[in-house]
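Bumping my old thread because nobody answered last time. Still need a sequence for this structure:
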C-alpha cells in the first residue's frame, strides 16, 4: 500500500479518537471542569465508562444511542463530532502530504479540533473558552516556528504567524470597537475595564498607526500603569482614540505615515497586540474562579458590544496558523455565510441566534483547504 495513503488512513483513525476527546472539551470547558479528571463518565448517572463504551462511532451504534448503565439517551452529536473529526483529519492529510509539509498537517489538524470544539461550544453557550482560543494562538506560533525550520511552503513561518495573529485579533477588535461606538451613539463607555481593557485597545489602534505594534503596546502598558497607580480608570476619550484613528486614515491618504495600507496595517497590528495582551490578562485574572463565580464575573455590567471578544482571539489563532492572507479570506467567507444564513432566517422567520464563531470556523476551513487556489485565482483575475 502507498505510504501516503496509509498515512491518510492513520490520520482518519486519529481524527476519530481526537473527536472523542473533542466531545470531552465541548462538555467540560463551558462548565469549568477539568478535561482530565474524573475519567469519562455518563453525564446522567455518573457511572464510569469502560473502554468498550468509548470506541468512536461504534460504541454509540452498538448501544443504540443509550447509556449501557442507566439507558439514558446519548446525544447524536457525539458520533457526529467523531465522524466529522475523522473525515477532516483524513482530508487534511490528503491535502497536505506529510512527505511535503512535514509536521505542518498536525498543526492544521489541531487547528481544526479547536475550530470544531469552539463552534459546538459557541452554538451551545454563545462563548468561546480562552483555553481553546489562547492555546490556539500559542500553538499557531509554535507551528509557525516549526514551519520555518522545515522550510514548509504555503504556510506561514514564525514572523508570518505573528503578523497573522496580530492582524486577526486587530481586524475583529477594530470592527468591535467601531461598531460598539456606533451602538452607543458615540457616547463613552460606562463600564471601562481596570486596569487594561477596551480603552487601551483603542489607544493601541491610534498609537499603532504611527508607532507600530511595539509602540502601541508601550502606550497601552503606560495607560494601564497609570490606572494601576491611580487605583481607578483614568478615562481616555474614544473621541480621541477612535476619532484619531479615523483622522490618521484620512491623513495617510495623502502619503503621511507611509500611505493608507501601511497606516492601516500598523493600526490593526497595534490593536491586535493590545487585544491579545488584554485577553491574556483577563484569562489569568479570572483563572482561579470556577463555576457560578466565574459566570457571575462574566455577567457583570457591560457596554453594548458589536462582537464577542472570543471571536477576536479565535481570529488570532486562525491568523497564526494560516497567515494573514488566508485570515482575510476566512473573514470574508464568514461574513458572506453569516449574511446568507441571516437572509434564510429572515425568510423562514426563524429566531435562532448563531454567533460569529461558527461562521469564522467555516471560513477558516475553506481557507485552509482551498485558500491558496482561491487567492491565486483572484490575483490572476487582477493580472498580478
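Sorry it took so long. Here it is:
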Amino acid at each position: 500500500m502507498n505510504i501516503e495513503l496509509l498515512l491518510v488512513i492513520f490520520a482518519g483513525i486519529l481524527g476519530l479518537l481526537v473527536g472523542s476527546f473533542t466531545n470531552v472539551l465541548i462538555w467540560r470547558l463551558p462548565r469549568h471542569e477539568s478535561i482530565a479528571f474524573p475519567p469519562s463518565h455518563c453525564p446522567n448517572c455518573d457511572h464510569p465508562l469502560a473502554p468498550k463504551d468509548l470506541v468512536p462511532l461504534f460504541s454509540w451504534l452498538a448501544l443504540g444511542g443509550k447509556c449501557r448503565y442507566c439507558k439514558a439517551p446519548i446525544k447524536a452529536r457525539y458520533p457526529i463530532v467523531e465522524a466529522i473529526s475523522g473525515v477532516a483529519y483524513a482530508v487534511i492529510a490528503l491535502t497536505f502530504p506529510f512527505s511535503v509539509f512535514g509536521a505542518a498537517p498536525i498543526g492544521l489538524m489541531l487547528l481544526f479540533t479547536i475550530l470544531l470544539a469552539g463552534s459546538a461550544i459557541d452554538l451551545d453557550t454563545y462563548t468561546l473558552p480562552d483555553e481553546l482560543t489562547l492555546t490556539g494562538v500559542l500553538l499557531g506560533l509554535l507551528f509557525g516556528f516549526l514551519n520555518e525550520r522545515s522550510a514548509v511552503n504555503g504556510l506561514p513561518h514564525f514572523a508570518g504567524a505573528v503578523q497573522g495573529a496580530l492582524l486577526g485579533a486587530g481586524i475583529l477588535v477594530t470592527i468591535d470597537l467601531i461598531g460598539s461606538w456606533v451602538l452607543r451613539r458615540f457616547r463613552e463607555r460606562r463600564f471601562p475595564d481596570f486596569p487594561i481593557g477596551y480603552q487601551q485597545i483603542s489607544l493601541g489602534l491610534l498609537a499603532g498607526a504611527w508607532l507600530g505594534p511595539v509602540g502601541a503596546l508601550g502606550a497601552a502598558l503606560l495607560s494601564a500603569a497609570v490606572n494601576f497607580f491611580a487605583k481607578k480608570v483614568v478615562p481616555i476619550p474614544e473621541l480621541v482614540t477612535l476619532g484619531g484613528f479615523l483622522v490618521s486614515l484620512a491623513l495617510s491618504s495623502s502619503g503621511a505615515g507611509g500611505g493608507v495600507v501601511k497606516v492601516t496595517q500598523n493600526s490593526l497590528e497595534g490593536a491586535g497586540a493590545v487585544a491579545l495582551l488584554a485577553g491574556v490578562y483577563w484569562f489569568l485574572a479570572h483563572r482561579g474562579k470556577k463555576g457560578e463565580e466565574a459566570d457571575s464575573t462574566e455577567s457583570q455590567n457591560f457596554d453594548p458590544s458589536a462582537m464577542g471578544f472570543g471571536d477576536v482571539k479565535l481570529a488570532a489563532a486562525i491568523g497564526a496558523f494560516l497567515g494573514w492572507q488566508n485570515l482575510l479570506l476566512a473573514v470574508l467567507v464568514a461574513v458572506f455565510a453569516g449574511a446568507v444564513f441571516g437572509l434564510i432566517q429572515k425568510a423562514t422567520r426563524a429566531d435562532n441566534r448563531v454567533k460569529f464563531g461558527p461562521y469564522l470556523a467555516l471560513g477558516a476551513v475553506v481557507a485552509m483547504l482551498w485558500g491558496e487556489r482561491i487567492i491565486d485565482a483572484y490575483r490572476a483575475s487582477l493580472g498580478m
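The chain has a mean pLDDT of 91. Let me know if any region looks off to you.
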